[in-house]
Amino acid sequence: MNKMKRCRICVLPETFPGITFDDAGVCQYCQKFKGKKNLEDKKARYKKKFEELVEKHKGQSGYDALMCYSGGKDSTHTLALLTRNYGLKFLAVTYDNGFLPAQTLRNIHKVSDELGLDHILYRPGFSLLKRIFSGCAAEDIYPPQTLMRASTICTSCMAIVKFSALRLAVEKDIPFVVFGWSPGQIPVASAIMKNNPEIIRVMQKASFDPLFSLAGEGIRPYFLEERHFDGSFRFPYNISPLAFLDYDEKNILSEVAKLGWERPEDIDANTTNCLLNSFANVTHRDKHGFHPYVFEMAKLVREGYMERSEALAKITEKENPAVVESVKKKLGL
Ligand SMILES: [Zn+2]
């Protein structure tokens, strides 16, 4: 690949939508960053807010929290942390998008047993997923700003995870839905969010309509129904603890290893649980000229969670062609 201009501080490239650089070659996101001290203060405030919420809601339902459990290192670490340090009773839910490595399933079983968790494996029929993922490979079905943060394939997969987890939490009256987002994937300011039914209705429509156009009625079970909005259900908080607790990738890998977690083979550098990711990355990069994880990696570098060289390595790594081919074959492309 030819030499691409990138921000001197983070790793955002000149091909990133809307990017501007000052005379020193620093991007607008790095110019706006208020510094580590400000960030640490904000994290401390959110940690306190989280602890107050735990105090208030713990022990009032059969489960305190529903974990969106991908089986990756970050969600595994989050589960362990909140089970052990905060005593939360979890229902862990894994959505198998058809590309979950066998090792990830073994990891999930080991970790669930180790932590004494209840776990649900939700496995949507593959014909539905095939229509969605092959459709997303052909066409970007969401507004262009979503492409800055993730590939269209990942955005669709996450919409299914987020809304079906919310539906389950609403139906089971679970007060918290927990995500293992890294600090690169979510700002501290969004790390604790009370789900508001009216806002959810609008947000859900923005995901539901494009997915419906690809796959039709089959997507309905993964979203809230009109009856969920009638005021008789309690809506949970969404919590992303890694945005305000400590985040150190090496430490996380060593902590999850103690639970028996092992890194699956054949996955790319930006995931620890998904074989579809390589294909999603290639498709996005070929179409848009930048890596779909670059915004996340840039944020981790800017905020001091990751070395610039490490981020560069992750976003310039070539995907394994055999894995990409096997995904294409499975999707009928
Ligand atoms: Zn920058």
What can you tell me about this protein's structure?
With 333 residues, this protein is α/β, with parallel strands linked by helices. It contains 12 helices and 6 strands. The protein has helices at 28-32, 36-57, 73-86, 102-115, 126-138, 152-172, 197-215, 249-258, 276-288, 294-302, 308-316, 321-331; strands spanning 65-68, 90-95, 118-122, 176-178, 192-194, 237-239. Strands 3-2-1-4-6-5 form a 6-stranded mixed sheet, with helices on both faces. The longest helix is centred in the N-terminal third of the chain and has 22 residues, at 36-57. The structure holds zinc ion. The site of zinc ion (ZN) has 9 residues, from helix 1.
Lay out the secondary structure.
Elements (H helix, E strand, L loop, with lengths): L27 H5 L3 H22 L7 E4 L4 H14 L3 E6 L6 H14 L2 E5 L3 H13 L13 H21 L3 E3 L13 E3 L2 H19 L21 E3 L9 H10 L17 H13 L5 H9 L5 H9 L4 H11 L2
Parallel strand pairs: 1-2, 1-4, 2-3, 4-6
Antiparallel strand pairs: 5-6
Helix pairs in contact: 3-8, 5-6, 9-12, 10-11
Zinc ion (ZN) binds next to α1.
